[in-house]
Write a structure and sequence with these properties.
The complex is a heterodimer of chains A (310) and B (382).
Chain A lengths: L1 H35 L6 H18 L1 E2 L2 E2 L3 H28 L7 H23 L4 E2 L8 H4 E4 L2 E4 H23 L1 H11 L1 H6 L4 H27 L1 E2 L3 H16 L4 H21 L5 H15 L14
Antiparallel strand pairs in A: 1-2, 3-6, 4-5
Helix pairs in contact in A: 1-6, 1-9, 1-10, 1-11, 2-3, 2-4, 2-9, 2-10, 3-9, 6-7, 6-9, 7-9, 10-11, 11-12
Chain B lengths: L1 H17 L5 E8 L6 H20 L7 E3 L2 E3 L4 H13 L3 E5 L4 H13 L3 E4 L15 E3 L4 H15 L5 E6 L2 H16 L7 E6 L7 H10 L3 E5 L3 H13 L5 E4 L6 H6 L9 E4 L11 H11 L6 H20 L5 H9 L25 E7 L2 E8 L3
Parallel strand pairs in B: 1-2, 1-3, 1-4, 4-5, 5-6, 7-8, 7-9, 9-10, 10-11
Antiparallel strand pairs in B: 11-12, 12-13
Classes of the chains: A mainly alpha (310), B alpha/beta (382).
């Protein structure tokens, strides 16, 4: 038993970081679902492209693995540019793949999303190749401050950065949605698109905005994960997308706060499951929990029970 | 309407085939040319290409030019089956290099054997592959059971480790290496309670939860059995980050300067890896090949030399068949099976045994020193 207890604090740290990343991805899924009632399967690929964008910023601002400008400036630029690139990408996807199909049956939108996902994955495969790109972070953050210990628990600066940035972005989003006029318009559109239109809300613009924000958060997650796990390749979007989607459903799809909670819970469950079971079972445990939640609360942990429209 | 369309389509697809006379022959190359293992597989392809270029420069096989089509399976057994069927259906195809992975090789054994197409793999090491009675499958690399036992010897004798953690990916090759090594360790007197085994998921990019478990176990050696170098780089990096004191011991895929040593930014210093191929840079016969490869394709990681050797063995067998005016798949297969004391660039003469395995195979051990691997030991099962 001692051998388990000894791991717990470290596994909590592992789970929180992983959960923060899942949460950022889940928000993108849940925002789009909330407004369009569709699963944006291309979101995992948006995350992957965010990782590549961050890598290119780091690559272009380094000479022989040594950054040419201040490290914290590079990290900020990486995150900001990745968010800008993926935000624009999200808007593009909405304009060309989803808007023409908005009046079509939901299944068509879903297929279009799958198509975009495959298209983006192969586009990156074609132009960036199949090999993993490495974020050479050692010159960015010196070894001495990169890792530190508190008791028996190891913290890495990157992990803390990921948790902090993830929570910061989520807090900003919450303020935007709860306190601003745009946020009110977004909530209104999510509740009832037609009624929102009658009230004078430009629904098209709100939808574009939702794609912009959701995709930018996914892109930020891509770069943060690149910095933390030091690699990105054309295939990372698949698993990340799956986990983000799971987190969104767990928390109650359509509910932004639920996506955050769902992500954190999923990350924690995965790393704690590894402690007690062979690591192969971590996904089994995570999905058993998802199924249980869906049996007893089909609308997810935080989702609202919406009576079926007749 | 649909039927007519299909007929026209069939005609269009069939027409180019008509022009062919037998002035070319083909050697196929099956492997995962996209995905995480693309780098070693391209190295295999490029190395056999060098051998083929050399033969073509000499006038090919009896005046016939040799072509070298690539069959990409992306590490997926289902796609490997498609590649095998395509290669089998090609009448000009007389032999295949690969597949280089145990699970894709396993999926295609029956298909290649059904059309008498000889396979020479350069890396698939699961013992079972040559234990199923298929006569068309050969390998220039040693088997996993030989590697597993040699790794167990190296861990206990050379590294003097008492407590060992084994993490393996859930694919045929990795599971097999892990279980053969653990079997060997137990045979060498390591207690059950001093061995920990767990699994990792390839491409997950985060192994911290399972490595936290390893840290609690506190072993002397962490044997990290993953297929690709990028995964091993993450393993060695996160193990160090978590403060795991055990020495990292990686598998064949980790013998990659760029994707393992450079990618882990110093964390790999002092790490061990095993490999089925020796350091070719110290073998005089390999000099010409190394020069050609580096001039054209960049640095060699260790997957290339066996592929150059395999291509030469295959082409020699085809040449022999052509000279006897019996250039067909069956004859090429028979000639490959007769390969004995083939002196190539691997530093030991290649002989195939009854099963198609490499007679007298060996496992080489390396340690990361600075930006390169230093060969430490060779184990031959004793």
């Amino acid at each position: 038993m001692d051998i388990y207890l000894q791991q717990l604090p470290q596994q909590l740290v592992n789970g929180l970081t992983l959960g923060g990343v899942y949460a950022l991805i889940a928000i993108g899924y849940t925002m789009v679902y909330g407004i369009l009632s569709m699963l944006n399967f291309a979101h995992g690929e948006v995350y992957m492209i965010g990782g590549f964008a961050g890598w290119w910023v780091l690559h272009l601002l380094s000479r022989g693995n040594v950054p040419i400008i201040n490290a914290s400036l590079i990290i900020s630029l990486m995150i900001i540019i990745a968010m800008a690139v993926t935000g624009l990408l999200g808007m593009g996807i909405e304009r060309f793949a989803y808007r023409p199909l908005r009046k079509a049956p939901r299944m068509n939108l879903l297929l279009s999303a799958l198509g975009v996902s495959i298209f983006l994955q192969n586009l990156v495969l074609n132009y960036q190749g199949a090999k993993a790109r490495f974020f050479l972070v050692s010159s960015l953050i010196p070894e001495s401050i990169r890792v530190f210990h508190i008791g028996n628990v190891v913290f890495s600066l990157m992990r803390i950065l990921v948790i902090v940035v993830a929570f910061l972005l989520m807090a900003l989003l919450t303020v935007l949605i709860k306190k601003t006029k745009v946020g009110k318009a977004m909530r209104a559109t999510a509740q009832d698109t037609e009624a929102a239109t009658f009230m004078g809300i430009d629904v098209d613009r709100i939808i574009v905005l939702v794609f912009l924000i959701g995709s930018a958060l996914g892109g930020a997650a891509g770069t943060l994960v690149g910095l933390m796990f030091t690699q990105v390749d054309y295939y990372v979007g698949f698993q990340a997308g799956l986990k983000g989607f799971t987190a969104a459903v767990l928390g109650g799809i359509g509910n932004i706060f639920g996506a955050m909670i769902g992500g954190i819970i999923l990350g924690l469950v995965e790393s704690l499951a590894t402690t007690f079971f062979p690591a192969t079972y971590k996904d089994v445990v995570a999905f058993v929990i998802l199924i249980l939640v869906l049996i007893f609360r089909p609308w997810g942990l935080m989702g609202e029970k919406i009576p079926e429209k007749v | 309407m649909g039927l007519i369309f299909l007929m026209i389509l069939g005609l269009v697809l069939w027409l180019p085939g008509l022009g062919h006379t037998a002035d070319v022959i083909r050697v196929g190359n099956a492997g995962a040319f996209t995905g995480d293992a693309a780098a070693p597989c391209m190295e295999i392809y490029n190395s056999s290409q060098i051998a083929i270029d050399e033969w073509n420069a000499k006038g090919g096989i009896k005046g016939m030019k040799i072509e070298h089509p690539m069959g990409d399976d992306a590490m997926d057994p289902a796609q490997a089956v498609n590649v095998a069927q395509k290669f089998c259906a090609d009448n000009l195809m007389l032999g295949v290099i690969g597949p280089p992975m145990s699970h894709t090789a396993q999926a295609t054994l029956k298909i290649y054997s059904g059309c008498d197409l000889v396979n020479i793999t350069t890396a698939a090491s699961k013992p079972d592959l040559t234990e199923q009675g298929f006569k068309n499958f050969f390998r220039v690399n040693a088997r996993n059971d030989a590697h597993g036992w040699n790794c167990a010897l190296f861990i206990t004798r050379n590294l003097k480790a008492k407590k060992i953690a084994v993490l393996n990916e859930k694919v045929a090759y990795c599971e097999n290496i892990a279980s053969e090594t653990i079997k060997g360790l137990k045979k060498l007197g390591v207690k059950d309670s001093d061995i920990m085994q767990d699994t990792i998921v390839a491409g997950a990019k985060d192994f911290s939860p399972v490595l936290t478990k390893v840290k609690a176990f506190n072993p002397d050696i962490l044997f990290f059995v993953a297929t690709t170098a990028p995964d091993q780089a993450i393993g060695v990096r996160q193990a160090k980050e978590l403060g795991i004191k055990a020495k990292f011991f990686g598998t064949e895929g980790a013998r990659d300067k760029k994707d393992f040593i450079e990618a882990s930014e110093g964390a790999a210093e002092g790490a061990y890896v095993y490999h089925f191929a020796p350091d070719v840079f110290v073998i005089p016969a390999a000099k010409n090949y190394i020069q050609k490869f580096e001039a054209k394709y960049g640095s060699i990681s260790g997957f290339g030399p066996p592929a150059y050797e395999a291509a030469n063995i295959l082409l020699a067998a085809m040449d022999k068949a052509a000279k006897a005016n019996k250039l067909n798949r069956k004859e090429v297969l028979a000639n490959v099976a007769k390969t004995k004391n083939f002196k190539g660039i691997l530093g030991f003469p290649v002989t195939f045994d009854q099963k198609g395995d490499l007679a007298g195979g060996a496992t080489y051990f390396f340690q990361v020193a600075g930006k390169d691997f230093k060969q430490l030991a060779v184990m031959t099962g004793k």
